[in-house]
Amino acid sequence: MLKHIAKYSSVLTLSVLLLPLSLAAAAKARDVLTVYTYDSFISEWGPGPAIEKNFETVCSCDLQFVGLDSSIGILGRVRLEGAASKADIVLGLDTNLTEIARRTGLFVPHGADMGPDNLPLPFDDDTFMPFDWGYFAFVYDRNRLKTPPRSLEGLISATDDLKIVIQDPRTSTPGLGLLLWMKAVYGGDAAEKWAALQPKILTVTKGWWDAYSLFLEGEADMVLSYTTSPAYHLIAEGRDNFAAAGFSEGHYMQIEVAAMMKSAPQPELARQFMNFIQSDGFQNVIPTANWMYPTKKTALPAEFSQLAQPQTSLLFTGRQVMENQKQWTDEWLQASQN
Amino acid sequence: MVAGQPELGPGRAAGYYSWQHRLPAASAGYLRWAGFAGLFFAGLLLGIMAVLLGALFQGQDLSLLPDEMLQPQLLRLVGGAVIQASLSAVLSIIVGAGCALCVFRRGMFFGRSALLTLSFLAMIMPTTVAAVSLLSLWGRQGAVRQSVNSLFGTDLLFAPYGLFMVILAHMFFNAPLVMRVCLSVLQAIPESQMKLAAQLRFGAGSYLRFIEWPAVKQALPSLFGLIFLLCFSSFSLVLMLGGGPAVSTLEVAIYTALRFEFNLPRAGALALLQLLISSVVILSLSRLELQSWTSRLDAMQTVPRSDRDRISVKSLDIFVVALFCLIVVGPVLSLILGIDIGGGAGLFHRPVFWSALFSSCLLGLTAATASTAAALLLAAGRCHLHYLDHPLIRERGAEIIALSVSVYLVLPAIVLGTASFLLLRGIADLFASAFWLVLFSNTLMSLPFAARILMARYSAVVSRSHRLALSLNLRGYSYFSRIILPAMRHEIGLSLGLCCALSLGDFGVIALFGSDRFQTLPWLLYQYASRYGGPEAEVLSLLLLLLAVALYWLLYKSVGLWAERGLRPC
After folding, report:
1. B490/B347 Cα distance (integer angstroms)
2. Which of A199, B263, B441, B483 has the lowest tally of Cβ within 10 angstroms?
3. Measured between CA atoms, how close is B569 to chain A, in angstroms?
4. Is A52 in CB contact (< 8 Å) with chain B?
5. What is the dihedral of CA A97, A103, A107, A113, to 10 degrees?
6. Cβ atoms of residues B459 and B292 within 8 Å
7. Residue B494, CB half-sphere, CA atoms under 13 Å: how many?
8. Side-chain half-sphere of A293: how many Cα atoms within 13 Å?
């Protein structure tokens, strides 16, 4: 019996055995800097590959990205690993997570001398280094929606024919962004406003892709995304029919940050990378690979000038988010189930 | 063939149902090892799961557990999810089994294999792609809804986002499975029965009552259990089509506890609640499960039927198959026809595509082999347990095996992933073992499907052939290659093909472990889509489906060839 099994499966078994071995045998000669990030950052058309190349030419090291399923997934991962983590750097948390991340005690001040100079709001933090930012916005198709609302209030009081699709604040970054946006604009009245918005919400998806594909399919008139989303359609696809609606109350922001692990196996390289974040080798890659604004003043592609430019930037501190997130989420749950 | 009734009563219509006997214990000696091996394997699986779940509670105060599990808000959510899952399962079974009966009655007809292939594709479509395809028919702008609107001047259909849309999507994924399993059960009905029925000039009702229903109903409890559990733990589909947080599942709460709150004991408590509900369903169904039937061992032949040519029967068949097509085949076709192939051609120039293709094929083939082998072992365990003398082992053993088969459905992937991470972090390099972890989870994921396909048939084949095998002194591998394999080649082929396709399409735990060195096609698909999708994502999803079909045929044909070797004279 064994002979038969061996005969039929030896080729398969051999290749299965060799695969992880050959993978594990990857370059070990140079020092390795390990950076945890979210997975779309390191996809072939994301910023990861170019940044890796640019940094490796200046550090003579091996930069290895580990792509995890989400921003919150990165934090969960290093919390599980604790001080035993292989990570030197985590890249891709946002300001909503910084306070929670700080409390874990896993991160140390980065000590970098170069700071951001292209943020619409002052941002001063010795541990978390911003690397890009953007505004949440509702994106629509000019051919389908001729008169989009011009304010959050306009959206809420629009007729119920206007259908929007949003993401769940419990599972998605833009979803949480809208929750905070509503709270920043309406404060104590937010629940009431959520209830008024309810008939226009077609559905609440788990992730960004689900919502955006519903929108592209023509199911919804507007989708919760970023002001920079139309830049993708302009530059990568040459389509100018998509636009983000500028809202007069202002737009809620997302600032993405990186931080250095206290337990970093390569602290010197990690510090070098934290300094590298504000340099051209990193920042120039951001606009057309991560489709966000860079934190350092760099020349943007011409198409970016066609994007909606919010006059007011809204942002809660990491501490406010940490202290209120659960209560605000429950408030939204209540309002949207009635 | 589960513990319970050892023999069917003499009142049963067809004589062959009482053909089956308990084996005399002594003569079954050589089968006993298989029973114990299967039981041991099942126990091992359950043990691993218990250890994993336990890892979440490490060093925590357990006295708060009941409070976590009994919040009224949570119980309401569970109630809603139970209703959703039950409706999804019942409707999938009605549509799937109905279609199987009609297809079986019609025998060979034009478009039969297209119907089977396209509905096979439905089972393995990536969730978001499937949802968008479904909405292209049933959504606000969907073709079906638009034609209903223009026909009647008003929207008579169910709301495009809400409970019923979720159920419809679950039918889309699960009715094809019901159809395949029921069809394979129907095709195993002995030819003599079909001939007798034709001689007696049976009508459609008599065929159903005396021949088809007794065969089909054996498969239904376990199918109901499988679909119930799949729908009960469904996540992104429920959120996407449910229209808001009012339609939700426990899985969403588990995700929130694990990710946003980083509250491992609470996540563990919720997972435990899911486990309890799922176990109740599995165990009560395993008691309900009926005794297996004997069946012919040869390939399907067409026996003329006396009910086929009636106009009423014909129109019924056309109606049922058309309904099935509208729900299952329509969205698949809409995906295939809507794709801009030229726009995604750039895909083939990317090295990452070829490496992902290789990893996915390797993963699919190994996971399919592993889960089919595991399901055969568990099937052997469950079948031969029946011949053990000890009533306690016989009954508890059947329950243990029933639970172990569904282990992956009972605990959410994110919990399994986190827990195995907690356990293994100090022991193994998780980046280097990403392949093995994904292989393990994909094997467990497809195990319940493989088991549904193989278990009942295995018992039937053994009960039919054990005397012959004893008299020929066939045992061990020769018993497998000369009896089991030739008789079960369709089921083994189906199981291998389906499991391979399922793991090809599974995104599952890859993202949880994360690595830039191990990438699969669904991972790549998600990467393309998460930056504004575009034609590459569409072409990639089509390729994924084509690859699944190609590997399915490859596996199915190889099993056929292997089985023929077993039939050759020594």
Report:
1. 35
2. A199
3. 17
4. no
5. 70
6. yes
7. 24
8. 23
The answer to whether residue A285 neighbours chain B at the CB level (below 8 Å) is: no
Pick A209's closest partner by Cβ from B517, B530, B562: B530
Please identify among residues 137-156 of chain A the ones whose CB lies closer than 8 Å to any CB of chain B.
none
DSSP element (H, E) containing A140: strand A129-141
Contact B544, B504 (CB under 8 A): yes
Contact call for residues A156 and A196 (beta carbons, < 8 A): yes
Mutate to test the interface with B, among A1, A214, A221, A288 (most CBs of B within 10 A): A214
* Contact across the interface for B252 and A333, Cβ inside 8 Å: no
A16, A67, A337 ranked by CB distance to B516: nearest? A67
Residues of B in contact with A67 (CB under 8 A): 511, 514-516
Contact A167/A207 with Cβ under 8 angstroms?
A: yes
Q: How far is CA B81 from CA A39, B25, B241, B497, in A?
A: 31, 45, 14, 31
Q: Which tokens belong to A236?
A: 């990568």
A209 touches chain B (CB under 8 A): yes
Parallel, antiparallel or unpaired: strands A251-261 and A129-141: antiparallel
User: Taking CA atoms, what residue in A is nearest to B369?
Assistant: A9
From first to last of its 570 residues, chain B has per-residue pLDDT tens of 333 333 333 333 333 333 344 444 434 455 667 777 888 889 998 998 888 888 877 766 677 677 777 777 788 888 989 999 999 999 999 999 999 999 988 887 888 888 888 888 888 888 888 888 888 888 888 888 888 888 888 777 778 888 999 999 999 999 999 998 888 888 878 888 888 888 888 888 888 888 889 888 888 888 898 899 989 988 888 888 888 888 888 888 888 888 888 888 888 888 888 888 888 888 888 776 654 444 444 445 567 787 778 888 899 999 999 999 999 999 988 888 877 777 777 777 778 888 888 988 999 999 999 999 999 888 888 877 776 667 777 778 888 888 888 888 888 778 887 887 788 777 766 666 778 888 888 898 899 889 888 887 787 788 777 777 777 777 777 777 788 888 888 889 889 998 998 888 877 666 666 555 677 888 888 777 776 656 777 888 888 888 988 998 899 888 888 888 767 765
ipTM: 0.80
CB contacts of A198 in chain B (<8 Å) are 244
> What is the C-alpha separation between B427 and B429, in angstroms, rounded?
7
Q: Report pLDDT digits (tens) over B160-183.
A: 888 999 999 999 999 999 998 888
What would the DSSP string read from start to end of A142-192?
TTT-SS--SSHHHHHTS-TT--EEEE-TTT-HHHHHHHHHHHHHHGGGHHH
Placement of tokens 């229903």 in the chain? B213
pTM, 2 dp: 0.85
Interchain CB distance below 8 Å, A73 and B530:
no
How does DSSP classify residue B306? Answer: S
